[in-house]
Amino acid sequence: MEFNHYPVLLNEILEGLNLTSGKVYVDATLGGGGYSYEIAKAIQPTGTLIATDVDDDALLAAKEKLKEFDNVKIFKNNYSKIPQILNELGMEKITGGIVFDLGASYHQLTSDSRGFSFSKDSMLDMRYDLTLEKTAKDVVNEYKEEELVQIFSEYGEERFSKTIAREIVKQRKLKSFETTKELADFICKAVPFKAGHIHPATKVFQAIRIEVNNELKNLQQTLEKIIPLLEKDARIVVVSFHSLEDRIVKKAFRQYSSNCNCKPNDPICTCEPKKLELVNKKPILATQLELAQNPPSRSAKLRVAQRI
Q1: Which CATH number fits domain 10-101+215-307: 3.40.50.10230, 3.30.930.10, 3.40.50.150, 3.30.479.30?
Q2: Helix 56-65 and helix 34-43: axis angle, to 10°?
Q3: Could you tell me the pLDDT band of residue 136, with boundaries at 50, 70 and 90?
Q4: 115-213 fold
Q5: How buried is 17 (Cβ within 10 angstroms: 0-12 exposed, 13-18 middle, 19+ buried)?
Q6: Interhelix angle for 202-213 vs 180-190, to 10°?
Q7: Alpha-carbon gap, residue 76 to 204, rounded angstroms
Q8: Looking at residues 125-145, what average pLDDT do you find?
């Protein structure tokens, strides 16, 4: 099996991690192992890399790619479980750094069976972790109209959320939605569509994927858990691919890099000393060369911070 995934902003991420042999690093989103391979190579022989993912295809491909290294520990788990994994390994801190690549892989997006994209006609699934019970089909066919409106507007920032949700609820009374093509074609008929603009189903598919995998809540809660686990001078590096993710990362970095987050009317300050120093105040973007080689990197934003 070939697991295709282009490691976006690879050089910038490696530089951001400030790789040093002898320290513990974490690849929170292993994927096909593109980042992990370079990290493991740079920190051998005395450094340790812990890597997590929930996608069985990714894990299989990464284990094959990384088989030459004996300093890599791979776990099938959501990155929200990294604190528990560290505890199981008897590690109190991440001494070197951690990287999150929040994008779906090329393999996932182009798979005939995963249902992430309407470019392939497949069952409505969209799970990164196939052991999860809830699928995209469940969301589309079982959520109440007001719940669909909420996720389409919040997670997709779709301006026709109410119209799309209302029409989906009407249609599913006649026949449930089964495939990505059925849903995408239906959305095209439900809302105005101009040639040359983004496909009208794009934002809805993004919203459903986020809901199925609980992406934004997981990200926010994980950042809150991970930042205190970074040892002094350890780095946290995050690549996001849409504004909702980047907003969460930016807010967390700002919160932990500020000495005070009190509101103006608060009587006293109860804030703890800041935990992070921003390495780059503005997000790092892909170079023109990378954009030419991998067009999807145009939406990538890289933020780096260091524990103090």
Answers
A1: 3.40.50.150
A2: 40
A3: very high
A4: DNA polymerase; domain 1 (1.10.150)
A5: buried
A6: 130
A7: 28
A8: 96
Q: Which two three-digit tokens encode residue 83?
A: 């604190």
Question: Are 241 and 103 contacting, i.e. CB atoms less than 8 angstroms apart?
Answer: yes
Structural tokens at position 137? 């089909």
Q: State the pLDDT at residue 5.
A: 64
Cβ atoms of residues 246 and 223 within 8 Å: no
The reported pTM is 0.91
The Cα 107–Cα 113 span in angstroms is 11
Amino acid of residue 60: L
Rounded (to 5) percent helix, strand, coil in the chain:
45, 15, 40
Q: What residue spans in the chain does CATH classification 1.10.150.170 cover?
A: 115-213
Say if residue 26's pLDDT is above 70.
yes
Cα–Cα dist 115/271, whole Å:
44
**Dihedral Cα 60, 62, 66, 70, nearest 10 deg:** -70
Q: How confident is the model at residue 2 (pLDDT cuts 50, 70, 90)?
A: low
How do residues 178-192 score in pLDDT, each as one tens digit? 999 999 999 999 998
